[in-house]
């Protein structure tokens, strides 16, 4: 497969997985809040919440997630090019950049827009912020895993 096409497909897969995890976290926090108020939330309600949030946030959050990770992973690729880096270090670095990029995005957005302008409501708490940053780490790890050719995964 062409290197550029592998990069694009890997980016899309990694972003869709990370975005989906982020939506599941957000819907789970929303459902837990409703349960805390004494409202019963069934499994079908939870799945419906996830589906609606996936589509609803897809117009704003998904493009931001994609652009942010495309830029960060491209820049990191330039930094790591022609460097002797083990696979473990490379995967950890991409995971770290994925997590830090999302955390920076959320904190910057909050600083500019205030808490009322938060893109994903569950990032208002520290635990939610770290959980969403973890989705960026998953995206980075998965991106690096997918961009490596099968022959180079043995080291």
Can you offer a commentary on this structure?
This protein is mainly alpha-helical. The protein has one domain (3-147). 75% of the residues lie in helices and 0% in strands. It is built from five helices and no strands. It has helices at residues 3-36, 43-56, 61-80, 87-113, 126-147. Helix 1 (3-36) crosses helix 2. The longest helix is centred in the N-terminal third of the chain and has 34 residues, at 3-36.
Considering the chains and any ligands shown, give keywords for the structure.
155 residues; single chain; 5 helices; mainly alpha; 0% strand
Question: What is the strand and helix layout of this fold?
Answer:
Blueprint: H1 3-36, H2 43-56, H3 61-80, H4 87-113, H5 126-147
Helix pairs in contact: 1-2, 1-3, 1-5, 3-4, 4-5
Write a short abstract of this structure.
With 155 residues, this protein is mainly α. It has helices at 3-36, 43-56, 61-80, 87-113, 126-147.
Query: The biggest beta sheet, please?
Result: none
End-to-end C-alpha gap: 21 Å
Given helix and strand content, the structural type is mainly alpha
Run of helices and strands:
HHHHH
Task: Name the beta content range.
Answer: under 5%
Mean pLDDT: 87
Q: State the total count of DSSP E strands.
A: 0
User: How many separate structural domains?
Assistant: 1
What is Rg? 17 Å
Tally of DSSP helical segments:
5
Helix content: over 70%
